[in-house]
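Changelog entry

Holo records now carry the ligand SMILES as an explicit input line rather than a separate metadata file. Below, a converted record for ketopantoate, shown in the new format.
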Amino acid sequence: MSDRPAIALVGPGAIGTTIAAVLHEVERTPVLCGRTAHPRLLLRHDDGEIVVPGPVLNDPSTLGEPFDLVFVAVKTTQIADSADWLAALCDENTVVCALQNGVEQQARLEPYVNGATVLPSVVWFPAQREPDASVWLRAKPRLTLPDVPPAQRVVDALHGTRCMVELSGDFISIAWRKLLLNAAAGLMVLANRRAGMFSRADITELALAYLRECLTVARAKGAVLNDSVAQEIVDGFQRAPADLGTSILADRQANRPLEWDIRNGVIQRYGAELGIATPISDVVVPLLAAGSEGPG
Ligand SMILES: NC(=O)C1=CN([C@@H]2O[C@H](COP(=O)(O)OP(=O)(O)OC[C@H]3O[C@@H](n4cnc5c(N)ncnc54)[C@H](OP(=O)(O)O)[C@@H]3O)[C@@H](O)[C@H]2O)C=CC1
Ligand SMILES: CC(C)(CO)C(=O)C(=O)O
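Structure line, unchanged by the conversion:
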C-alpha cells in the first residue's frame, strides 16, 4: 500500500456493514461513504456484535485524495447515483472491489472509476438489514476473487479478519454458479416468500427447470458447470432456514428498485444474443421488471 488513504467503502448497507465491521475489528476501519449519514454501523453475528464508529459521510466533496482500495457495496441500481463518490475516491492507482451480485461488475463500474482497476467478487454470505439499519449476518463471511495481481490488495486488507477470501483461477465459472443461485432466488420475489417455499414440489420443479435454462446460457458464456449444479442449488435452498430471504426480496418488500436485470434479465439478454431460447426467463423477467418499475 502507498501512503495515500488506505481503504474506503461506498454503500454501508447489509454487505458493506459486514465488510466495514470485519475490517474495523482488525483496526483497518474504512472511510464510510453513504447516502444516509448514520452515526455508526452495527453488525450482529453469531458470537455477538461489532460497532463501527461513524459517521457515515454523505458528501463526496469533503474527500481529499483518491484511495488505494475502494469496496463498492451499493446495489447495482444505485451505481449511477454513487458517481460522485467514485469520482472522488478513485484514480488509475486505485483497486475497486465490487461487492455486488452479477457477472457484469466490471462493465457496470468501469465508466465511473477514473481508470481504476475494477476487481469483481462473489459475495457468498447472506446479510439482512434490519429496520433500525443494523445488519444481521446470517453466515460466515466469504468472498471469492479472480486470481489476478490486483486481488492481492483485497487479500492483504482482509487478512486476519473473520471474512474468508478465496482466489480462483476459473472465476467465470464461480461467478456464474453464484448468478444461478441469485436467479433462482428471484422466484422468492414472485411468490413473496422466503427459502421455505422451496420445500414445495411444484416450486422445486420450476426452480430446476429455470436453473437448467440458466445453465445452458452460462455454459455458452464460458462457465464450466456440471448438470448437478441445478439440483445442488435447490438442495441449498431446502437446507436453508425457512425464513432466509434474499436481498432482492428485501428490496421488493420495501418497494425499492430491484436488481432484476443483473440477476435475471442477464440470462434472457445473453440467451437472445446467442440464439438460446429462454422461455422461463421470458415469463420471470417481465414480472420482476414490472415489480421493480411498474407502472401501476
Ligand atoms: N444482502 C445480501 O445478503 C447479499 C447482497 N449481495 C449483493 O451486494 C450488493 C449490495 O447489497 P446489500 O448490501 O444487500 O444492499 P443494501 O441495500 O443493504 O445497501 C446498499 C447501501 O448503499 C447505500 N447507498 C445507496 N445509494 C447510495 C449512494 N448514492 N451513495 C452512497 N451510498 C449509497 C445505501 O444507503 P442508505 O443507508 O441510504 O440505504 C446502503 O447503505 C448488491 O449487489 C446485492 O445483490 C450479494 C450477496 C448477499
Ligand atoms: C444471500 C444470497 C446468496 C441469496 O440469493 C444473495 O446473494 C442475496 O441475497 O443477494
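Spot-checked after migration. The chain is about 40% helix and 15% strand. The two ends are 51 Å apart (CA to CA).
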